[in-house]
Amino acid sequence: MSNKFLSKSLYIRGLQCEKSLWLKKKKPEVLQAPDDGAQAVFDTGTSVGELACELFSGGERIEYTGDFNAQMAKTKELIERGTKVIYEATFCFDGILVMVDILYVCENGLIINEVKSSTSVKEVYIDDASIQYYVISSLGYKVSAVNIIHIDSSYVRGEKLELDKFFHTKDVTEQVKQKQADIPQILSKFDEILSKDTEPEVDIGPQCSDPYTCDAWEYCWRKQRGIPEYSIFDISRLRSDKKFELYKSGVVKFEDIKELDKFNASQQIQIRSELSKEQIIDKEAIKEFLETLSYPLYHLDFETFQQAVPEFIGLSPYEQIPFQFSIHKDDGKGNLEHFEFLAEVGADPRYELALNLIKFIPQDACVLAYNMSFEKRVIRRLAEIYPQISNELMAIHSNIKDLMAPFVSKSYYHPKMRGSYSIKYVLPALVPEFESAYKDLNLIHHGGEAMQAYEAMAYMPAKERDAYKKALLAYCKLDTLAMVKVLEKLREVVK
Question: How are beta strands 109-115 and 143-151 bridged, if at all?
Answer without folding.
Answer: parallel
